[in-house]
Amino acid sequence: MVIVSEGYKFIGAALILALILGIFAHPYAAVPFVVLACYFAYFFRSPAREIVQDVNHILSPADGTVTEITPVGMDDFVGEPCNKIVIFMSVFNVHVNRSPIHGEIKLQRYYCGRFRPAYKDEVGFENEHHLIGIDRGDLRITVKQIAGILARRIVSWVTLDDQLRQGDIYGMIRFGSCLEIVMPERAEILVTKGEKVQGGKTVLGRLESE
């Protein structure tokens, strides 16, 4: 189990406060901050996963629950009619995000915005979000990280023209949020609304073999 670097300052701050309160106040006063440090270690975890790579599969980019599967018509980046799948991540889910396919980042946009609850229908337009478009040559998709009421920081470790392998970690969102993936309509959707998914493990869509 790995803890991503974003979590170190939160864990460290909680432990320092626990130490100060334990020394200068009362040992019991340190307990809540020790518990908080443990939670931060849990939240910022990045469990090792064996990624089964398949050019016909579009993998889930996140852990969470599928809350929406919607036709969205023609997408400018994808260049063909598409479906959108929305995955809600609670504060207990793994929050690192993984690339659903092999490909090169050919689109990257960051939007400032509001911090409404991540389960609201309009958050993909109103809330702070970060969008990347991945191009494999024969396939294009977009993945959007969306901030929620507690998620005040979207983290991305990639930039334009970076190459991603299927299952590679490329970013995370802090403290409860959601993620949208837009894929071609020709990909058969293999998940249903309400289903629990795992990043890099669950197959969201399947393309027909040529």
TrEMBL record:
It comes from the Bacteria. InterPro entries: PS_Dcarbxylase, PSD-A. It is an enzyme of class 4 (lyase). GO terms for molecular function: phosphatidylserine decarboxylase activity. Its EC number is 4.1.1.65. Keywords: Cell membrane, Decarboxylase, Lipid biosynthesis, Lipid metabolism, Lyase, Membrane, Phospholipid biosynthesis, Phospholipid metabolism, Pyruvate, Zymogen. One of its GO terms (biological process) is phospholipid biosynthetic process. Pfam families: PS_Dcarbxylase. This is Phosphatidylserine decarboxylase.
